[in-house]
Predict the 3D structure of the following.
Amino acid sequence: MARLVVVLFSVWLAVAPPASAQVALPFVGDELRRVLALGPWPPAPRIDPGNRVSGQLAAIELGRHLFRDPRMSPVGYIACVTCHQPDRSFTDTLARAHGLADLPRNTPALANLNQQRWFGWGGSSDSLWMASIRPILDAREFGGSAASVTRLFARDAELAACYAQVFGVSPLSRPELTLVNVGKALAAYVETLTTGRTPFDEYRDALARGDGAASATYPVAARRGLQLFVGRAGCIECHRGPNFSDGEFHASVASSANAGGLRFASDGGRFDDARSLQASPLNLLGRHNDQAGRGNAAATRRLLVHDGLRGQYRTASLRNVTVTAPYLHDGRVEHLRDAVRHTDGDLSAQELDDLVAFLTTLTDRDAERRPWIASAMTTRCP
Ligand code: HEC
Ligand code: HEC
C-alpha cells in the first residue's frame, strides 16, 4: 500500500506542472545565446606553457606540500594556507589579509585561476607562478627571499630530493632559480583548484539540450535573476564566459569612495600593479618564462600605464561567491546583496533579491571544503 502511494505520488509529480511553469521566462534568441555562453563547465584542463612543470603530478604534489609548509616563511609559522584556507574555499573570512603585517586587500579564493591571464586584484602578475612567488617576497606576508627558501631545502633532505626529482637540479646550487621553481611547483598545484558543477550548470546544459523537463526544476527567482544578469542589469558585460569573468580590469564603485573608514587610503589598483608588473624581473618578458617571450609576454610589453587605470580591479569570478564573504578587493562589503550593488545600476529590492537567488545557484556541492585535485594521485612526494 505504502509503495502504491509512493508510485502514485511520483506519477503526480511527473504529470503536474512545476510551480515555475506559471512564471516561465523562456530564454530565446540572443538572450538564450548569452545564457549558453556562461558554460559549459568544467572547462578542459589547460597547461601553462610558460611553466614547464605545469600539469606534472610530481610538481603538483611538491606544490601541494609547500603550500602547507610554514617553514616557507623565515618566521616559521606563516604558510600559504594561513590565508588561503582549503576548508574556507581558499580564503580566510577576513576583510583584509594579515600576514606579518596588515595588507590593504582581501584574500582571493584561489579557484579557476587557469582561466585567468592576469593575477591579483590589480594584475600585478602575468603568470600564476609569478603570483605564487609574490607572497614569499612581500615583507607583509612571508618576508622571505631566495636565500630563505633555499635554506628550507638545505634543512630537509627528503624535500630537497623531491625538488631534484621534479626539476632535475639540486635546490642548493642557485637560490634565485630555486625561488622561481618553487613558484612554478606552487602554481602547478594552484591551477588544479577548479570549482565543481552547480545547479546553474545543470540548468544551462538542460537548455542547451532543449530538455524542458530538466530545466523546469531551476528556481523561478534564480531564472528572473539570470534574465537580469544577461539583460538589463548588464552584469555579463564584465562577468562573462564560463568563469563569470572577462579577466580584464574595470573601475569599481568601491574604489572611488576609499574614505569609508579605511586606513589604506591610496590603492591605485591596476595603475600601481601594472607598473610593478612591468618593472619586475619575474614577469614573462624575463628569462624565467619557459616559453621565451611568448604567451602573455606581448600583452605585458604593450601595457600602457596611464591615469585611467587608477581604481580598476580584475572582474571577480562569481562561481562559489556565496561562500567567499567579505567582498570586493578591500573586503569592505559583508553581504552578497550589497556586493551586487557595486555598479551604479538602478536595481529595485526585488531585482537585488533575484540576482542573489541567481548567484546562489553558482555554488557547488563542495564549495566550503574544496578537494584539492580531481585526478587520483600516483606520486608521493615528498
Ligand atoms: C598574508 C595572507 C596571504 C598569504 C600568506 C598568501 N596569500 Fe596569496 N593572496 C593574498 C592576497 C591579499 C592576495 C591579493 C593580492 C593583490 O591583489 O595584490 C593574494 C593573491 C594570490 C594569488 C592571485 C589570485 C588571483 O585571483 O589572481 C595567488 C595565485 C596566490 N595569492 C597564491 C599564494 C601562494 C602560492 C601563497 C604561498 C606562497 C600565498 N598566496 C600566500 C593573501 C595571502
Ligand atoms: C563594468 C564591469 C562590471 C559590471 C557591469 C559588473 N561587475 Fe561585478 N565586478 C566587477 C569588478 C571589476 C569587480 C571587483 C571590484 C572590486 O573588487 O573592487 C566585481 C565584483 C563583483 C562582486 C564581488 C565578488 C567578490 O568576490 O568580491 C559581485 C558579487 C559582483 N561583482 C556581481 C555583479 C552583478 C550581479 C552585476 C550586475 C548587476 C555586476 N557585478 C556588474 C566588474 C563588473
Notes: Residues 4-9, 11-22, 256-265, 373-379 have pLDDT under 50 and may be disordered.
